[in-house]
Amino acid sequence: MEAGREHTLPIKKADRRLPNIEGDAGWPMKTYKDTEPDHIPLWRFLDLDEPFSCEDVDNAYSNNGFDDERAILAWKVLRDAYFCGEYKKHGTTERIFESGFFDDGLTPASLRDMDYSWARTPIYKIRRNLNRLGRGGRCAVLLMTGAFSPIHKGHVLCMEAAKEELERRHIRVVGGYISPSHDAYVETKDGGRTRLDARKRLALCRMAVKDSRWLMVDGWESLCATVPVTFALVYDRLKNYLTRRFHGTMTIDVYFVVGSDNAAYARAFADLGHCVCVERFGYGKKYKQISAELEHNQRIIFVGYEDWHLRCSSSSVRRGGLRMLDDIIRDRYRQLRSFGDRLARK
Asked: Which domains does the chain have, with CATH numbers?
């Protein structure tokens, strides 16, 4: 490096704001996608030295009044135990963005004030399965996040494939959650032209799993969170919620389920939590790359799965591929789309 040249972490803010969200001034989705390999560890921008805790990171950021966007990025990454571990191992912010990180724009106060105990997350199927199966052995609950605009056969099959693989490994799956994303995230898909709002997406998801003995729908991410949040926060919130609800009676591991189109998200669970990555048609190269990279990690399971329905995608459904929907979902989806089109023409 040239003498006298200042060490900097180049960051370019995405110049994009989404439409206002009810109860929020608008969601600035800062992804910093043009970051280069870091020259200085992120914790130095908060005047921290290793080792440090999440509380140390929050205190350093809040007490010193940092407003430099490098410090903001450092606070966001280092307070998250999942992405922080990934960053510490590889030392580049580029890799954590590949692994699913984004800046949600939340402040320390708004993070503290969020209702993580939201009691409308259902647990009745978990209780029923624990009573039916007994409480011995390892138990797991699965979680899948995404827009689900709309939910289709491939989503459910992906969860079933993950469950099948865990049970093959003698891990009993006692429940699973479909967690639709916040409306502001769904606005970014297809320019928002084919968006179903959260309540419509939740309704379709509940229809899709109502006959399942183990799958449920969690509305916390779409209804309770004030802005779109990372899958790591959704995962951590659910893990802590279930720990509180089943405290003293049962230890339940939460497994994040992801399709191979987002296989890099599995990296966030290399040191904490659990993940199942299910291969999807058209994303075999990415699946092979990430599975080879993480093949010896006991926290992450890869499932090679060949089925026609794993070629499904919500974008294909939105373009007219309604055969990817179950009959009952197809009819309701047509009604919702027709109603939305009529509103749009007014």
From this structure: 8-113 (no CATH), 124-331 (3.40.50.620)
The tens digit of pLDDT for each residue in 309-344 reads 556 666 776 666 676 777 788 888 888 876 444 433
Beta bridge mates, 179: 145
- List, for residues 7-55, the tens digit of each pLDDT value: 333 333 333 333 333 333 344 555 554 444 467 899 999 999 999 999 9
Are 9 and 70 a contacting pair, CB within 8 Å? yes
How far apart are the C-alpha atoms of 33 and 268, rounded to whole Å? 18
The 10 Å Cβ neighbour count of residue 103 is 20
Half-sphere exposure of 286 (CA within 13 A, CB side): 19
H or E element at residue 166:
helix 153-168
Cβ proximity of 281 and 255 under 8 Å: no
Distance, in Å, from the CA atom of 246 to the CA atom of 178, rounded to the nearest integer, reads: 20
Are 65 and 115 in contact, with CB atoms under 8 Å apart?
no
Mean pLDDT within 272-277: 97
- Over the stretch 283-301, which tens digit does the pLDDT of each residue have? 888 999 999 999 999 999 9
Could you tell me the pLDDT band of residue 158, with boundaries at 50, 70 and 90?
very high
pLDDT of 53: 93
What are residue 328's phi and psi, to 5 degrees?
A: -65, -35
Q: What are phi and psi of 233, to 5 degrees?
A: -70, -40
More confident residue, 205 or 192: 205
Helix (H) or strand (E) holding 201: helix 198-209
Residue with token string 């450092």: 74
Distance CA 267, CA 328 (A): 36
How far is residue 168's CA from residue 162's CA, in Å, rounded to a whole number?
10
